[in-house]
């Protein structure tokens, strides 16, 4: 029989993202963020390519991105409510970590598998932050898919994209539990 890590399994069975709008300061400092990033970097990575990187957004960067979201959203003619929602996401966040998908040319590892690796890093980062006692949420939004925003605001190179943005801080109130998938409807068993 395998040895069960009961604490880890219980955490995974009960984990819950915290809405970004409920997160406030304090956020982890650089020393506290180190183990969280280390845990995230232990994600599946076929070919050991490390096809991702981190950008840690501290308060001044979040304020700058908040203003850039307004400028870009207005230039793109987006709905003002949509622009305001993105502005406040950056303005109200105590800390955020951008996981950048940065594919590496490889004949052995297709780009889609490298994107999956970046997604796995996002989930591992989210879970590591939650396991460390912080509130955390994985978001993206229109700005993270706008080339003008990500190139000007985050310095992304051609070929790079945002896999996710993990907002981390201290939660004000735990959210209510939400409905979970019906595994009977989502699982197919094949015996032959």
Give a summary of the structure in a few sentences:
With 192 residues, the protein is α+β, with helices and mostly antiparallel strands.
How helix-rich are the residues, as a percent range? 40-55%
The general outline is globular
Q: Give the second-level CATH assignment, the architecture.
A: 3-Layer(aba) Sandwich
Total number of beta strands = 5
Flag low-confidence runs: none
CATH homologous superfamily assignment? NADH Oxidase
Taking the sheet with the most strands, its summary is: 5 strands, antiparallel
Remind me, CATH topology?
A: NADH Oxidase
- Give the SSE order as H and E letters: HEHEHHEHEHEH
Number of domains: 1
Oligomer: single chain
- Average pLDDT reading: 94
Which structural class matches the secondary elements?
Answer: alpha+beta
Rg measurement, Å: 18 Å
* Discrete helix count: 7
Strand % is: 15-25%
Distance between the termini: 25 Å
CATH class: Alpha Beta
Q: What report would you give on this structure?
A:
The structure is a single chain. By secondary structure, the protein is of the alpha+beta class. The protein has a single domain, classed as NADH Oxidase (3-Layer(aba) Sandwich), CATH 3.40.109.10. 43% of the residues lie in helices and 16% in strands. Strands 1, 2, 3, 4 and 5 form a five-stranded antiparallel sheet that branches. The longest helix is centred in the middle third of the chain and has 21 residues. The mean pLDDT is 94.
